[in-house]
């Protein structure tokens, strides 16, 4: 089997390793395939690992219909959009053309990525004020919007936003806690925006309202590239209660 085929199978099977382990795997597979890599070639190997395909086909991004008051939020949305395209990951989002929603969707679409926007009919006049980007799915209500976004994505990212963003974020974290899904959830903590939220979660852990191991139900990073790498390496939290509930959720769907 060719090296390219082996590497493709490796990523397709969802194996997640830290970068130094990825490079070791690259070198081992190359040797097995009869490839010769000299010292100079190791930098090429590292570069190939760095740009290897993501294990996610699509990522759902929760973000504000406002752009915020500072350029750092806009810059973060643009950076996230570019990083998704670089990794060949589709964007799933709330379907609006305004605020951070509009910025990230426009960036992914203009850079050649695939965009799926999901929006309730009643919000179209409020959140779509100009050109839309990619595919737009119109649903009946907010519940359908969130369910469709969750179903269509392999991971979730929250950019800075308001009540709606926080509600969407907390719902997918709660679903992970209840065993409804094991998809990675990440916070893009732009200039410390989510610091107070993280402090609240830590307070809830300290006061006995959140189990310590459930603090790891989501990851956090200050930049898009770092956050997406955290999501790639995420291992679902083992929880006996969540596992039992997951079986019950599945049984109830049959």
| CATH architectural grouping of the largest domain | 3-Layer(aba) Sandwich
Structural class category: alpha/beta
Shape label: globular
- What fold name stands as the CATH topology of the largest domain? Rossmann fold
From the alpha carbons, calculate the radius of gyration and give it in angstroms: 20 Å
Biggest sheet details = 7 strands, parallel
Helix residue percentage: 40-55%
N- to C-terminal distance: 40 Å
Name the poorly predicted regions: 1-21, 26-49
Keywords: Cytokinin biosynthesis, Hydrolase
Protein name: Cytokinin riboside 5'-monophosphate phosphoribohydrolase
InterPro entries: LOG, LOG_fam
GO molecular function, one term: hydrolase activity, hydrolyzing N-glycosyl compounds
């Amino acid at each position: 089997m060719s090296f390219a085929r082996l590497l493709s199978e490796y990523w397709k099977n969802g194996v997640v390793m830290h970068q130094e382990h990825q490079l070791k795997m690259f070198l081992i597979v190359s040797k097995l395939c009869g490839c010769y890599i000299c010292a100079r070639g190791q930098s090429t190997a590292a570069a190939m690992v760095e740009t290897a395909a993501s294990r996610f086909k699509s990522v759902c991004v929760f973000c504000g219909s406002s752009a915020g008051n500072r350029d750092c939020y806009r810059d973060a949305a643009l950076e996230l959009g570019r990083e998704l395209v670089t990794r060949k990951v589709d964007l799933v989002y709330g379907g609006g053309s305004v605020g951070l929603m509009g910025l990230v969707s426009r960036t992914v679409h203009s850079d050649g990525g695939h965009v799926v926007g999901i929006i309730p009919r009643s919000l179209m006049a409020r959140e779509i004020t100009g050109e839309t980007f990619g595919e737009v799915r119109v649903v009946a209500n907010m519940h359908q919007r969130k369910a469709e976004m969750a179903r269509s994505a392999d991971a979730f990212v929250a950019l800075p936003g308001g009540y709606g963003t926080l509600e969407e974020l907390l719902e997918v974290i709660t679903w992970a806690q209840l065993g409804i899904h094991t998809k990675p959830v990440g916070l893009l903590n732009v200039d410390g925006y989510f610091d107070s939220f993280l402090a609240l979660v830590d307070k809830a852990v300290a006061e006995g309202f959140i189990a310590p191991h459930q603090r790891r139900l989501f990851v956090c990073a200050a930049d898009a590239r770092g956050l997406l790498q955290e999501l790639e390496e995420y291992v679902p939290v083992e929880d006996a209660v969540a596992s039992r509930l997951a079986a019950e959720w599945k049984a109830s769907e049959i």
